[in-house]
Design brief:
The structure is a single chain. The chain is an alpha+beta fold. It is 49% helix and 18% strand. It has 17 helices and 22 strands. It has helices at 20-33, 55-65, 77-80, 84-96, 116-147, 170-184, 189-198, 204-210, 231-239, 282-297, 343-348, 360-394, 396-426, 431-481, 487-493, 514-517, 542-545; strands at residues 2-9, 37-45, 71-74, 100-103, 108-109, 157-159, 166-168, 222-223, 226-227, 247-249, 252-255, 260-263, 270-272, 315-317, 324-330, 336-342, 358-359, 494-502, 505-512, 521-523, 529-532, 537-541. Strand 20 (521-523) and strand 21 form a beta hairpin. It starts with a strand and ends with a helix.
Length: 549
């Protein structure tokens, strides 16, 4: 009888008891003693028995389809598989092709109908064992996640096996910093990857091989024995908060048995701030994340081999509602300049819209002017709110005394309410009079409570407003101190730019993002919004728009 030998070892098993060599010796001896002719053999090392997507199983199927074997010999049924349903399906598949399964140590033969009950019980036990082991492994892993233990650090880091500490690999870290810089400078994922490949910058795969001794998947793109950067790798690095020093665990869950995958909601993830040394500072990280979201929202794309133009995706024609297209013009005296024109005009001509032409440097000047104006108003609002906070602090004692008086008043009124209620019970004939008296006391109590809340809410509102203003003011100071506006800061500052052209005159309207718009809002002494400043328009002739700001 023709036989196929199969043996398997998973990572969580006793490697001495169930070693591949030990299993093979048992199977060979059994085949020789029982007159089986061994046609072939296969094995799976460090592979779970909860799924049948295994190389060793595939080889068995090939032999079955070619009608080469009559039996599959295993040490025990758990070697064949631990998932009871999938194992049963596979055994049925073999039976349909007149191939039996023989379990040596369990003395089981699937061709013997008397063994069916035993096989079913073994499958249940094997399934329970595998799931219990999986739960224990998952529980241990989850505990490490809760404690903030880094399992595998990303590119740019190395985990010392002796100290268990995560350290920075400086050469790789320089590459990470370069990727963030290029992205903030206007380069897209593909352009960054292309530049790194052109400069011969080492990839994560290189460090896996040289530093960790890991094999690189054969699917990794290689040209002239060089691992290449790809856009998805760039995107993954830019999105990884690990580089800002934050470890986030339990972001996804994969069920290898049922082959399912799902994302874990942020509130259920384990977040550990300052868990590892940062390669990227927090401000750079936040700018990159803002740009990632902004470029997706605005559908920003760069021309092949070029940077993303500064105003792409945020500048529009206010007359036809088309986007404005960037074009680069060569200057007679040398050099280049970037201009923006209405895309409708660009594609269909003056019959449908006008040029709305404006130079990028003019827009840059206007944006910087807006920054200075917003900064001035922000500081003015800050000084006003700060003075108000100090005034409240000076009046704190009087305010507290007033609150005490009001609370005493409320207590007196509540006692009067109780007395009136008792009188109302005794004198039912005049209940309507007592109802009027109760209503007046209730109104007085509500008024006193409202006054107390106003005292407390006013100070809380002032402090909250003051606290919320500070980060924005610091950012405005930082941007203006540089004397120019970077691509990242531009998109953080400006939400939309609208161009309107009429009678040879061009107007530019800025719509700021909410974090900056709030600095233009005016508040009263209690911190309540009283007015919103929307005067963000600039008006000039077309000639001046393309000559100077």
């Amino acid at each position: 009888m023709r036989a196929w030998l199969y043996y398997r070892l998973s990572r969580d098993e006793d490697k001495e008891l169930n070693s591949l060599t030990n299993q093979k010796n048992i199977l060979v001896e059994y085949a020789e003693n029982n007159g089986y002719t061994v046609i072939g053999e296969s094995f799976d090392d460090n592979v779970s028995g909860m799924h049948f997507d295994r190389d060793g199983i595939e080889k068995i199927c090939e032999a079955v389809e070619q009608n080469q074997i009559d039996a599959v010999i295993v040490k025990d049924l758990s070697r064949l598989g631990r998932h009871r349903t999938q194992t049963a399906v596979f055994i049925d598949y073999l039976k349909k092709h007149d191939v039996r399964v023989i379990s040596v140590t369990e003395n089981i033969d699937t061709s013997n109908e008397n063994d069916d009950l035993v096989i079913g019980m073994k499958q249940i036990i094997n399934d329970m064992y595998a799931k219990d082991a999986s739960r224990k492994i998952r529980s241990t892993y989850r505990q490490k996640q809760k404690e903030g233990i880094v399992i595998i650090p990303p590119f740019g880091y190395f985990k010392d096996k002796n100290t268990r500490q995560v350290v920075i690999v400086e050469e790789a870290a320089d590459t990470v910093r370069l990727i963030f810089k290029l992205y903030l400078d206007g380069y897209g994922f593909k352009q960054i990857a292309k530049k790194l490949n052109a400069d011969g910058v080492h990839t994560p795969a290189y460090y896996q091989q040289t530093l960790l001794g890991k094999n690189v998947p054969h699917t990794w793109p290689q040209i002239s024995k060089q691992q290449l950067w790809i856009s998805t790798t760039i995107k993954r690095i830019l999105e990884n908060e690990f580089y800002a020093g934050t470890l986030i665990c339990h972001k996804t869950r994969t069920d290898k048995i049922n082959k399912t995958f799902r994302f874990i909601p942020p509130e259920e993830q384990y977040r550990h701030e300052n868990a590892v040394p940062a390669i990227i500072d927090r401000e750079t990280w936040q700018q990159a994340q803002f740009l990632l979201q902004k470029r997706v929202k605005d559908r920003v794309r760069a021309a092949p081999g070029q940077k993303i133009h500064r105003y792409t995706g945020i500048i529009e024609c206010a007359d036809c509602h088309s986007v404005c297209t960037a074009r680069t013009r060569k200057l007679p005296q040398g050099g280049r300049r970037v201009e923006y024109i209405c895309n409708t005009y660009h594609r269909y001509g003056k019959e449908y819209c006008t040029t709305h032409l404006i130079r990028e440097e003019v827009l840059d000047d206007l944006v910087y002017k807006e920054l200075l104006r917003v900064k001035k108003m922000a500081h003015a609002n800050w000084e006003a709110i700060d003075a108000l906070a100090k005034d409240w602090a000076a009046q704190k004692f009087n305010a507290e005394r007033q609150i005490d008086r009001l609370q005493e008043r409320i207590s007196v009124l509540k006692n009067e309410v109780e007395q009136i209620l008792m009188e109302r019970i005794r004198d039912k004939a005049h209940a309507d009079i007592y109802d009027v008296m109760l209503q007046k006391r209730d109104e007085a109590i509500q008024s006193a409570e409202q006054q107390i809340n106003e005292y407390r809410d006013a100070q809380a509102s002032i402090e909250a407003r003051k606290e919320s203003m500070r980060p924005g003011i610091d950012l405005l100071d930082a941007i203006t101190s540089e004397g120019s506006v970077s691509d990242a800061h531009l998109r953080m500052f400006v939400n939309k730019v609208y161009l309107h052209e009429q009678d040879g005159k061009l107007s530019v309207e800025f719509v700021l993002n909410a974090d900056f718009q709030t600095h233009l809002d005016l508040y009263d002494q209690n911190g309540e919004l009283t007015d919103v400043c929307n005067d963000l328009g600039y008006y000039f002739s077309k000639a001046s728009a393309n000559a100077s700001a």
